[in-house]
Design brief:
Elements (H helix, E strand, L loop, with lengths): L1 E5 L9 H5 L3 E5 L5 H7 L5 E4 L7 H6 L5 E4 L9 H6 L3 E3 L6 H17 L1 H9 L16 E5 L3 H12 L3 E5 L5 H7 L2 E2 L2 H7 L2 E4 L13 H6 L4 E5 L8 H9 L3 E6 L19 E3 L8 H19 L15 H7 L3 H14 L4 E10 L7 H16 L8 H7 L3 E7 L7 E9 L4 E9 L3 E7 L2 E5 L3 E9 L4 H11 L4 E8 L5 E8 L5 H9 L3 E9 L1
Helix pairs in contact: 5-7, 14-15, 15-16
Length: about 525
Amino acid sequence: MFKVLVSDPISDMGIQQLMDASDVVVEKKTGLSEDELVGIIGEYDGLLVRSQTKVTEKIMEAGKNLKVIGRAGVGVDNINLEAATKRGIVVINAPDGNTITTCEHAFAMMMALARHIPQAYAKTIQGTWDRKFLGVELRNKTLGVLGMGRIGSEVAKRAKAFGMEILGYDPFLTEERAEKLGITLASVDDIVRNADFMTIHTPLTPETKHMISRPQFEVMKKDMRIINCARGGVVDEMALVEAIDQGIVAGAAFDVFEKEPPEADHPFLNNPKIIVTPHLGASTIEAQENVAIDVSEQVLHILRNEPFKNAVNMPPVAPSVMNKLQPYFELGEKIGAFAAQLNEVAVSEIHVDYAGDLAEVDTQPLTRYIMKGVLSRHFGNDVNIVNSMHLAKARDVNVVVSQASATKGFTNLISVSLKTQDGAERRIAGTLLNGYGARVVQIDKFPVDIAPEGHLIFISHNDKPGIIGSVGTLLGKNEVNIASMQVGRKIVGGEAIMVLTVDKETPKEVLDELTKLAEINKAQQLVFE
């Protein structure tokens, strides 16, 4: 018999299949302190939580029989993933359980924004019969959806039913998938300039933080209405208030804030053109039950040693395979991140090629690290080594893995190629060198020797005399210190690349200046944490 502890309030309906299982005993003990949990967790095989219980390393150390921790929800911030992975405890969540409820909340916010419903309600119950609230129809309006994952796609479906035209942006959205969804593939700039409504459905990452800020508001279509039920920080809150005051934005509806709860004097809270709710996107009876049902099902599979999904830490791997692959995990993730940062077009296919000793083992865990590196630029902490393949598949990105014994002079070689929807391809190859660690040894067709760490500047240029000098002079003038430099070319006077290691982040305006130099085609910054 397996024993499962439910330490947070979860309805019996949500965990009914666990309670009905003949080989499982479920006990509900909520409101326990860390020490109280430590005192009893040793007798349980599974732990089911929501957000109240903080599952610490101390608790897991005491959980000698613990095989699985289930989080009835999406985020796992309250669970120490590193400690769980180290002890072989599988952590699972329910990433799909709140898709529809968040989608519907976003749509409700859009409707409320279009028709001034909260403002009209407030006046009416105060005794003022004010019929001057002039709204707009959704029909024949253009909706821009930033983020075409599960939730964004569901919003697009419903918007089409209202007669709206949909512009969709997602770094992994291809023309083919956009056509399947019946929407128009667009850039952020396209949406900002042409949409009547804009709804946010992207994770918060360094790439997406303040994705919509002053530069976007300066070119935005007048009377835009903005909805954010995703993450606070994707829209620059102060810049949005300014845009509303200037008459650029007609109104906004936000379920999320950069800091939650917001301060009492937050300008959103007393602006008549902004509707706010306290992060209610997942707050429906159905969603709360669905996430519990999903997690309960997976907990049962894990306890019975059956196939399972939605793990957020590393699945079990044979020790012999793990010992072989583990030194390459960091290399693989960095190669993936390197390729993703160089690429600027939606990816339709990813090729991973293993050569040398790596061709003799099951490289699936390593492929997951590579995919995490590729996807983390756009998904941040929302992607991990278990869900990376799922996220790629959900966006119709084909992943092809091949193995070969020949290594072109290296003991082991990992190559990652990103094929984009416009037919272009970026290829990065890397290896481990004794005493030097992870090295990138090829960028596209150019041989190089680069440590993928810190801050790099990648420059594509024409091979002409004086290029290196002009680059060094410009960076020196802007107090950007060069630590090392690598150059690559195939023929004299032809295409060439330059990769500089610098001491700190290079301002965007400096990169723009570099791009304007004679014979330079592109200057990009690459960052490795």
